[in-house]
Amino acid sequence: MDRIVQALVEIVGTPYVSDSAEERYFYGRDPGLMPAHAPDYVVLPRSVEEIQAIVRLAGREKIALVPMGAGMSLSGLVIPQRGGIVLDMKRMDRILKVNEAARYVVVEGGTSTGKLHAHLNRYYPRLRFSTPDSPAAATVAANVMIHGQGRLTQQQGFNSDMVSGLEVVLPSGELCRIGSCALSDDWFSKGPPLPDLSGLFLGWFGATGILTKVGIKLYPRKKMRDVEIFITDSPDFVPGILYELTHTEMAEDINIFAQPLPLIFSGNHHIVIYFTGDSAEEMELKKRILFHALDGFIRNKDGGFMTVGEGMKKTLLDMPQRSATTFADVTKGGGFEYSGPIVPIDRYPGCSRKLDELAVKYDLKYHATARIIDKGHAMMFAFSFTFNRADEDMLNRTRMALSEASEYALSIGGLFWKPTLDEQRIALEKMDPQTARLMKRIKEELDPQGIMNPGNWEGI
Amino acid sequence: MYQLKFDEKRCLGCPDGACLVQCQYLNFEADPARKEMVKIFRGEDSPVLQDCVTCYACEEYCKRGNHPFYLINERREDKGILTAPRAITRQWIHIGEPKGKYELGKIGKIALSFGFMPQLKEITRGRLFEDVMPSYFFGQEFFCNVVYIHFADTKVFKERLPVVIENIHKLGVEEVIFLHDECYAAFTSLAPAYGMEVPFKSVHYFEYLYNRLTALKDRIKPLNVKVVYQRPCSNRLCGDSHLFVQKIMDRIGATLVQRTYQDETALCCGSIFRAMYGYDLMADVQGRNLEDMAQSGAEYCIFNCHGCMNALSPLVAARGMTPLHMIDLCRMAIGEKPEGGQ
Predict the structure, then answer these.
(1) Which residue, of A119, A300, B76, B263, is most buried by count of CB atoms within 10 Å of its CB?
(2) What is the residue-wise DSSP string for A308-365?
(3) What is the pLDDT of residue B342?
(4) Which residue of A224, A227, A231, A283 to mutate against B (max B Cβ within 10 Å)?
(5) Residue of A nearest to B86 (CA)
(6) Which residues is A339 bridged to in the sheet?
């Protein structure tokens, strides 16, 4: 038996270690377009102590170590670029604590968003978290690690802004708690009023440590939830519409979609407005305020509220939404990927027109979606394309379109969201050199051997 | 291109200006009303062209055979006066675009038209329809396109309606039972008003239901329920069919409760108002209508149009009434279980 396999078996037990070709194939890719690269070993720990032992082993042996949630970023963030060990967190999926009064939950690093969603539904019907629209297998830790967004992002910011504490195994194997939980068993704050150290880990994609526990804030779950769609025929009106809607502070979530198919959606931009309440009166009040916020656009005939039938309403109110799955099969062959930069909301018209241009240039089916972040401070604009995985030419055209979309986003002041390795390199080259040097010092200080998810946030 | 047949002399000799005097959304006395319609006919500016909310009721109020609403519509289009936001109009034009995805049953000499309302396929079941089903057609190829008169866009139906007529004609049907007012009105009101020939007989489903209930009268167990009826905007284009509402209720033993907003004073469901004008007009009209329904003490609110049903069902249910389509109410009367209750 391989020496490393033997060592891993001693830590986690035989069933949870593999170096077989089948496992290495599976763990060497994600559903996106990034090139595959197989790991040498796969390991599934069950405890913090096991993770610490694995990290120390990797350090001793100078083997790359890639922590992995569900592997659904689509941008290759857990593809082991230099082989080594993929550390699959899925066995660490316990929900450790819910503090109902202080509204937070603490979960293990491999807990799926679906499991947390179901747990709260069953035991805490008055609480919710910011459910992302990724498949339910996506983990809470990975979602905050990539600065994911969810159903409360319009109100509360990135899902990572809702973190209330972290437990991290450092590249040295030491265990470290971040936030109020460093002083007590209360997980109500990830930093303030202390220095906020969560930034040493969030957004680093595991290159500075492994999240073994995550505290996230919970929020009131209202009894009723509804959705309206305001449509306009020009992207130029969208920023103004969003400004008025966010000013009301009445919306739970605000998304936008625009797509040429089916024909009913062609040529219009659909601003999907969710709102919640505990009574019919509260719902009606919020609806009235939201409608009135857009009276000027309606009067000028620049937009109006469309009729949302029962079937469409049901689809939209689903959490997580499954429409991306449907979209992925518009072009037969099941491929779907997007470039989703974070941009100021006034860049919507430019992004929309760029997407139209790219779809024509590369002859691809497309779909624009956007999610408003933190009452309009920014938005995630997704340049989404669907492709046939068996069509190499189409795959190349999609890669080129995505690359061009990312370049465009950067040129208009946007930031890459869950950037590929190439995008990370471009971002590091563009950013203030002193900032890039600070990032490099942080990385070298925490991971001097460069074993943690190598390739990520390097290239400086 | 087809031209609207409109006789100015009928307006000049009109004794009461009923089209605008009776309007529930505009405020005109008889003499100014008459003059306003003549101005509109002559292509002059009129506040009516800005303020009409497209409830269609003036088509019914005019007893002199003119088409006041169709005329308003023509002039709005001539002057580029939009009723709806551009995006809403665009969306509706796309909805009705033929896509080659129509559906045909086993077509006989008599056929049911589902227009483009899939819900109708679900409720046209049981003994009421056994003598005609499965002879039906469905899809944009058979969609009447009358809805565009809400949007002052006559070009769409002028282009599409003759094609739809031809599509139906090609099926070889002699008689079509229309399950939606707009479709029935397309062939009995709009097409004749524009000089389009219709080579088949059009029957409103209310008349069909009444005749079937008469044929099945031995099966009817009087419902002994109190109901209100939500009259849709498009029924104003085919007022002859409205007479069957009371006749059907009498036949099935349901009491059509008297209320303020019924028959000629019926109020719109608000669905089109929300899309075109926003919250206030919709809320005002829906609020008055629902309060009137609730005050009547009715147990059921009976719908004719699924658009109205979609807009009002939750609101009706919240006030303790059961929303039900007319067809389902009739099926209940002959001991069948409704399909479309909410």
Answers:
(1) B76
(2) --HHHHHHHH-SS--HHHHHHTSSTTEEEEEE--EE-GGGHHHHHHHHHHHHHHTT-E
(3) 43
(4) A231
(5) A301
(6) A383
DSSP assignment letter at B186: I
User: What is the Cα–Cα distance from A340 to A382, expressed in whole angstroms?
Assistant: 4
Peptide bond into A193 cis (omega under 30): yes
d(CA B241, CA B276): 27
Q: Is A147 left (phi over 0), alpha (psi -120 to 50) or beta?
A: left
Residue in B closest to A263 by C-alpha: B94
**Res A460: pLDDT:** 55
Place of tokens 């073994």: A212
Cβ contacts (< 8 Å) between A267 and chain B: which residues?
87, 90, 94
Closest by Cα among B55, B22, B25 to B284:
B25
How many CB pairs lie under 8 A apart between chains A and B? 75
| Cross-chain residue pair A291–B278, CB shorter than 8 Å | yes
CB–CB contact A231 B87 (8 Å): yes
Q: Do B91 and A232 touch (CB under 8 A)?
A: no
Residue numbers in A near B308 (CB within 8 A): none
- Rounded to a whole number of angstroms, the distance from the CA of A339 to the nearest CA of chain B is 27
Instruction: Indicate the fold that domain B86-208 takes in CATH.
Output: Rossmann fold (3.40.50)
Question: What digits encode the pLDDT tens for the residues A112-170?
Answer: 999 999 999 999 999 999 999 999 999 999 999 999 999 999 999 999 999 999 999 99
**Chain B closest CA to A157's CA: distance in Å?**
29
Domains present along chain A, CATH in parentheses: 3-88 (3.30.43.10), 95-220 (3.30.465.10), 224-411 (3.40.462.10)
Which two three-digit tokens encode residue A180?
Answer: 């109020």
Spatial distance between the Cα atoms of B276 and B281, rounded to a whole number of angstroms: 10
Cα A99 to Cα A369: distance, rounded to the nearest angstrom: 34
Query: Residue type at A84?
Result: G
Residues sharing a CB contact under 8 Å with residue A220, sequence separation 6 or more, in sequence order? A103, A126, A127, A128
At a CB cut-off of 8 Å and minimum separation 6, what does B162 contact? B2, B196
Which chain A residues are closer than 8 Å to B310 by Cβ?
307, 309-310
Nearest CA in chain B to A231: B87
Chain B residues near residue A295 by CB distance under 8 angstroms: 278-279
CATH code given to domain B218-333:
3.40.50.1860
Separation in Å, CA of A388 to nearest CA in chain B: 24
Distance (Å) from the alpha carbon of B199 to chain A's nearest alpha carbon: 31
Cβ-Cβ contacts under 8 Å, B283 against chain A:
288
Q: What are the start and end residues of each CATH 3.40.50.1860 domain in chain B?
A: 218-333
pTM value?
Answer: 0.94
Assign B99 a pLDDT band (cuts: 50, 70, 90): confident
The per-residue pLDDT for range A44-60, each reduced to its tens digit, is 999 999 999 999 999 99
Instruction: Note whether A309 contacts B310, CB cutoff 8 Å.
Output: yes
Under an 8 A CB cutoff, do A263 and B99 touch? yes
Beta bridge mates, A214: A107, A166
